[in-house]
Amino acid sequence: MIVASRPPGPPGHWLLGHLPEFRRDKLAFYTRLAREFGNVASFRLGWHALALVSHPDAIEQLLVTDHRNFVKPYIYQLLRPTLGNGLLLSEGAFWLRQRRLLQPAFHKQRIDTYAPIVVEYARRLLDRIDAGKPRDLHDDMMQLTANIVTKALLDVDVSDHTDGVAEALDCMMHDFSARFESVWQLPVWVPTPTNLRLKRARGVLNAVIHKIIQQRRAAGGDRGDLLSMLIQARDENNGVMTDRQLRDEVMTLFLAGHETTANALSWTWYLLAQHPEVEDKLRAELQSVLADRTPTAQDLPRLPYTERVVLESMRLYPPVYGFSRQAVEPCTIGGFAIPAGTTLIMAQWVLHRDPRWFPDPERFNPDRWTPEFTKQLPKYVYIPFGAGPRVCIGNTFAMMEAILVLAVLAPHIRFRLVAEHPVIPWPSITLRPKHGIQATAERI
Fold first, then answer.
1. Pair 53, 40: CB distance under 8 Å
2. Domain coverage including residue 374
3. Residue 1: its pLDDT value, please?
């Protein structure tokens, strides 16, 4: 009998493992592992054993075929003090119950009703943009998507709170990265300056979320939004969500629902600013389809190039650059033996730039997304929203939102990057521009 061997990988420090290289440039480290050691490559962060999985067949096994043998690993527990037991972190029967309660809010018919909200807030942003004045496009997109997700899904306006929310999120991102890249992690209850900052950030977010929930409970009735649905929802045993469960789900949807779309839009504007030929083609489609009228959900099938721009942007700069699972039982992945407890990383950053699947992978080329190209692409290679039973519940909403925001802004405004400002991908919880994206606007 042939016994599968452990996955290959680079030599590491006896105590730190591969933490030094991982800290220096996580994305470059993942890329090197895949290119030098193949489809399954092992590494170590302190005492944590990990492996990078970079082939669609192995990813299908992890996320679909054998998904019951894999759970969310220790990395995700770093988010639990903030997100609680919401949809992102919950497991098993409880996760399935919550997913079923949330799913109706993301059916296509309901998503179409959110389109006017997306358009309205995008138009408000357009009216506020001063031509010729430098601005941070990432800040703009964060505020815009926060307003959209809270109005569309929760039927509240948080525009007065977005500055505080942005600061709290920034604190969370830095804290997550520091803990992920550390050998030893002090519990969050230890009153260090870092932990106290995180506690204050969580307090800001909790205050916003609790205010939303209290206002809705006091108002009563079904206003047709997600929060009303959650408050009134009953599971198969006629059980309702507790305030804690509501808080965890609303927090998860609020943070995930605007952070990832904001990043997708930020990187899209960044790429368009560097590729005027793509920008011109995008604007020509929008002019042809919309002329000068306001876009609607019914226009989405008529904007294929706009959709391709978003798809290509998320290929090069996936808002979620990687995610992971932990093996419950020993298994074989890609022909290699994986011990129980191993954390398996799937990095969209690596998959989406793999020349085996994407010719000329570093080039921003929306035209690659033809029906023929999409049809021949392996199913689990392009996964900006994940895949399998736990695919992002809001993927259709996110695509609709990104396309409509482009459709509102692009015909009327052009962004030009500030030359001396560095734009560096920062892989924290999501893929953010580390120093923002400074640009000036030109009216068209």
1. yes
2. 19-443
3. 41
- pTM, two decimals, is 0.93
Is residue 67 classed as helix, strand or coil in its secondary structure? helix
CATH number of 61's domain: 1.10.630.10
The residue among 355 and 181 whose pLDDT is bigger is: 355
Residue 336 φ/ψ region, left for φ over 0, alpha for ψ in the -120 to 50 degree band, beta for the rest: beta
Tell me what the mean pLDDT of segment 34-57 comes to. Answer: 97
Give residue 241's pLDDT.
76
What are the Cα distances from residue 88, in Å, to 169, 300, 423? Answer: 17, 28, 29
CA dist 113 and 155 (Å) reads 12
Alpha carbon distance 63, 55 (integer Å): 12
Is 397 in contact with 102 (CB distance < 8 Å)? Answer: no
Burial of 3 (0-12, 13-18, 19+ CB in 10 A): exposed
Task: Judge whether 26 lies within some domain.
Answer: yes
Beta strand 48-53 with 343-346 is parallel
Answer left, alpha or beta for residue 208, where phi above 0 means left and psi between -120 and 50 means alpha.
alpha
> What are the tens digits of pLDDT across the range 254-299?
888 889 999 999 999 999 999 999 999 999 999 999 998 999 999 9
Section 333-344 average pLDDT: 97
For strands 70-71 and 413-417, give the pairing. Answer: unpaired
* DSSP secondary structure, 308-362, as one string: HHHHHHHHHS-SS--EEEEESS-EEETTEEE-TT-EEEE-HHHHTT-TTTSSSTT
CA–CA separation, 374 and 79 (whole Å): 34
Number of domains within the chain: 1
